[in-house]
Amino acid sequence: MRTATATRPPAVAGMFYPGDPASLQNELATCLAVAVPRSGSPGTQGGAAPTFEPAAPGLLKAVIVPHAGYIYSGGTAGHAYALLAPLAGRIKRVVLLGPCHRVSVRGLAAPTVQAFATPLGSIPLDRAALDALADLPQVVASDDAHAQEHSLEVQLPFLQTVLGQFELVPLAVGQASSGEVAQVLDRLWGGPETLIVISSDLSHFHTYHEAQAIDKATAEHILALDQLTSFDQACGALPINGLLALARKRGLRIERVAQCNSGDTAGDKSRVVGYASFALYEPAAVVADLGPALLVRARNAIAAKLKQPTQAEPVHSALSQPGATFVTLTQNGQLRGCIGSLQAHRALDQDVRANAVAAAFSDPRFPPLTLAELPHTRVEVSLLTAPQPMKFSDEADAVRQLRPNVDGIIFIAGQRRGTFLPQVWEQLPDPRQFLAHLKQKAGLPANYWSSEVELQRYEVQKWKEAPTP
User: Within this chain, do residues 33 and 144 fall inside the same structural domain, yes or no?
Assistant: First the structure.
């Protein structure tokens, strides 16, 4: 096993894809230079994968892509990766899962290294995210599972080309249930900054026409978000099943982007391998409509407490689900109240109303909000992900793991507890200063430390009303 300071070097450069950077860039440019036909009609000119025009269904959250040599499946993968190019500024983290081909693993194998390298350069790993999975029994540490594994590596040059800078969370999936994989993906889900990539080919070593029939049925299962039942359908059936289970739960919509087999590209038709790429989208309503729905409810709750008229409230399906929010009130850019929930313990509708009233009238740092102040008060709502425990050896290690402008942090020391939302990084951009002030908020000295200190991290989606006149 490698040490935690090592970089995993490329193992299949020069075999599955060109090892020379210039040749690799040229090959990637060819794979990504795709034109999706209008009206969804498939086309196979020049051996290209049949493609399917996706609609505009919401926020692109995940892709399923093949992992054979680029001459075989690069065009099929390229159709999906081309969709990611406009998201280069948004995506900061890629969660990449693929099947183990060379090493037997029970569960999901996480590497201990700090980076993965390709001929195009090194990709830093999100060590904090990987370390936060350590309490899950199905996640095991294994560099051996990654050392020669091609299913993850072949995706990296594509990701480097279309996304530029990002952090990677690579997991090689061995024997694991769909529920175990889904639990890991759910923990890593994040917000718009996180992309999920599942690496898998379809059927293996059937005749051309047999493969077409098998892969057509497999694609129909995937498009219906139904679980696959055989590795003959897809070598990555286990990570695919985990994603599909979570996609069904979260209401994602799926599109097939391209499909073919090696007989369409660089192989003969006697023994072929099937390939397809899919894109999965979070509902547009989740992305676009939830924020305004929360803001209106927060303001209405405060207005009702002051016996003032309220606004019409848009309906949203997520409001009946458990959720944790913080409501922040400001006046002329200055804090006027902030109260929230760290754990989802009631319906989102109830949580945002209760926290809005508490921020306005029960924040001990401020007097209760008055009717005269209401028109000049700006409401901001933050929706929190579930807090995840951090693992660290000492304070310096904890500070190194903090992610400015991403992490909200909960500090716990005995009965003392405090939290800063990610928005606080705007005032305290230095991680050491951020943690020192958080300790003071918890009622402890800035230089306090103990081996019993616990830290938890979470992320937020936030929405803010337009500035008051």
Answer: yes
Angle between helices 70-82 and 155-163 (to 10 degrees): 30
Same domain, 248 and 298: no
Could you tell me the two tokens for 183? 């639990």
CATH number of residue 301's parent domain: 3.30.700.20
For residue 73, pLDDT beyond 60: yes
Asked if residue 225 and residue 77 are part of one domain, the reply reads yes
Tell me how far CA of residue 184 lies from CA of 29, 137, 159, in angstroms: 33, 11, 21
Q: Tell me, what CATH number does 104's domain have? A: 3.40.830.10
Q: Are residues 28 and 105 in the same domain?
A: yes
pLDDT tens digits for range 38-56: 223 333 333 455 555 554 4
Distance CA 60, CA 63 (A): 8
What pairs with residue 32 in β-bridges?
A: none
- Please check whether residues 306 and 435 belong to one and the same domain: no
Q: Tokens at residue 119, please?
A: 């001929």
pLDDT of residue 227: 95
Q: How many residues does the chain have?
A: 469
Cα–Cα–Cα angle for 11, 101, 144, rounded to 5 degrees: 55
Domain that holds residue 61: 7-283
Calpha distance 438→407 (Å, rounded): 13
The reply to whether 467 falls in a domain is no
Residue 315 CB: number of other CB atoms within 10 A?
Answer: 8
**Smallest Cα–Cα separation from 345: which of 328, 325, 362?**
325
What are the residues facing 93 on neighbouring strands?
167, 194
What pTM value is reported for the model? Answer: 0.63
Domain count, the chain: 3
The pLDDT assigned to 387 comes to 84
Please choose, from the candidates 65, 77, 17, the residue with its C-alpha nearest in 3D space to the C-alpha of residue 234.
65
**Residue 2 placed within a domain:** no
Asked whether residue 21 carries a pLDDT value surpassing 90, the answer given is yes
Which of 342, 408, 337, 341 lies closest to 378, judged by CA? 337
Q: How far apart are CA 49 and CA 80, in angstroms?
A: 11
* Distance in angstroms (rounded) separating the CA atoms of residues 415 and 412: 7
**356-360: long-range contacts, CB 8 A cutoff, minimum separation 24:** 356/297, 356/298, 356/299, 356/301, 356/302, 356/327, 357/301, 357/302, 357/305, 358/327, 359/327, 359/328, 359/329, 360/302, 360/305, 360/329
Indicate if 297 and 224 belong to the same structural domain: no
